[in-house]
RNA sequence: GCCCCUGUAGCUCAAUGGACAGAGCAGUAGCCUUCUAAGCUAUUGGCUGUGAGUUCGAAUCUCACCAGGGGCGCCA
């Protein structure tokens, strides 16, 4: 800046510093293309590339080598400032070790946010397609919490609807008195699929289902009692699965509880002139584009109540959105992790609430994600039988991981092997759902899901294990904080640089709701560690080198553990 | 008809508007008396769907088109 002023050059609005994008080199860089381009526009006859390099060189000469930096160079229009590696290395390693499990954690923002995710339907199976919302939502909540937000995790099971009535009908007519044994959710799903099949084969039986729905509407005690009992079975099954997945919730909302409240909200909308009551010929609708004066259709029409007066999903969503802010008045954001097909629906609901005058409506946000399909772009649907049940996937992943650990490390105790198999199997399941854009379809196939090599969670866990193994061999306390006096190898510099990125990437991932950034960083850090592991002996190195490297290994282990924790993946002590 | 998402190596995916577009898998050739080989090294593989535009600079932003997927008044 000073140099520009002195030399009568156009001042850049701000200097954008970026990391030098070469591995093994560590520092910051900026470019001079903008200034050169500005000059060109002002009529000076300059060739932008060459002029940028000229400026970079001039500034490099002007700067000399500022304190804290090792050297400064001008390359192809870029000005690169290389850190004084020993000092920065010490700072990063010390920081990681001092803050330990909190390394990467952001400052407390004094803001409360809610993440609603998972929304499983009771009386149905839990398949791999449902897994994405559970894992994505869980990790978003972990990231937001770690980034410094007070985070409320909410679940919203669909515990009433036609699917439940169908299930109850099938149970009452064919399974009365039966109870689920193990794999509750799979059993519930089986009965639901059976109900769908029966009704498909004998459409005349629909009348019985309708009659049962009417009994539910009257709150017939027998139906209500059976619903309550069987609903609890499903919820119990879900709790067991969440436990295995290490996914937890602070708050449960049920759509059965929002039904009446939703109807009251609709009454209010009608009274305010927002909703149009076309009953009995039509439904109760909100003509959003008309209300907003939009020329082109954008929000279209939201149906908020059926013509027969019964509630829809939208009815309940209106009530739920309100309920969340009643329960948590401080909420600065209310996130909905729901698949992308419901984007329009949520835009409509939030816009309707805004029109109704709820001041927080703009703080609701839908976080869309794409589906998990089967090869050939086949959508998972219980009715079609095109599903991979979560129970089956977990069982397969665990047993496959157990096989591998038996082979790799036969001397461990059976208990240890079980724990490792769980950690590895679960990691292998979660990672592929996190290491891609939310808006990209995940194609599930067994082979890829059970491949423990390459860019996958086990690779990252293995790096952790290797670091752990070195430190275990040494035992005792780490050497005291120190600045490395020897010349660090490129592998060491690259590793330290990656360790330093965690805090920044946590913020970025939380702001953009993209676990992908953490998944990538964790993998890259593990890769850098393996590189280091192969090139830089630790235990056999000279005393001073050994001491610093031990600290570096401990820091790497910590950073990897922290990013795995952010992804809800366990770091095993051995593998 | 309108709107949204996706299109990058044979396959699955990365890449704050910046420096030679990178990984994994698959293929090929190697590395275990040395901190765990679930690892590492080397090598093969690309007009980033097409065409314009903006910019000093585009996989990235804008527009048009092509291809695939999804959503659009009483399903959830």
Tell me about this structure.
It is a single chain. This protein has 575 residues and is α/β, with parallel strands linked by helices. It has helices spanning 2-6, 33-41, 48-63, 85-99, 128-147, 162-175, 184-201, 206-217, 221-245, 255-271, 288-292, 313-327, 343-355, 390-408, 414-434, 446-449, 457-474, 490-512, 516-535, 543-566, and strands spanning 18-19, 27-31, 69-75, 78-83, 112-116, 150-155, 251-252, 276-277, 284-287, 301-305, 331-339, 364-369, 372-374, 378-379, 442-443. The protein has a five-stranded parallel β-sheet, with helices on both faces. The chain has a four-stranded antiparallel β-sheet with strand order 1-2-4-3. α17 packs across α19 (516-535), α18 (490-512) runs antiparallel to α19 and α18 packs parallel to α20 (543-566). It is globular, with a radius of gyration of 29 Å. The model has no long low-confidence stretch (mean pLDDT 93).
Summarize the model shown.
The protein has helices at 2-6, 33-41, 48-63, 85-99, 128-147, 162-175, 184-201, 206-217, 221-245, 255-271, 288-292, 313-327, 343-355, 390-408, 414-434, 446-449, 457-474, 490-512, 516-535, 543-566, and strands spanning 18-19, 27-31, 69-75, 78-83, 112-116, 150-155, 251-252, 276-277, 284-287, 301-305, 331-339, 364-369, 372-374, 378-379, 442-443. It is an alpha/beta fold.
Sequence of strands across the biggest β-sheet: 7-6-5-11-12
Q: What oligomeric state is this?
A: single chain
Number of helices: 20
Instruction: Give the N-terminus to C-terminus distance in angstroms.
Output: 53 Å
Structural class of the helices, strands and pairings?
Answer: alpha/beta
- Gyration radius over CA: 29 Å
Beta fraction: 5-15%
- Biggest sheet details: 5 strands, parallel
Quote the average pLDDT. Answer: 93
> pLDDT under 50 segments (min length 5)?
none
Helix content: 40-55%
> Which outline best applies?
globular
Number of separate strands: 15
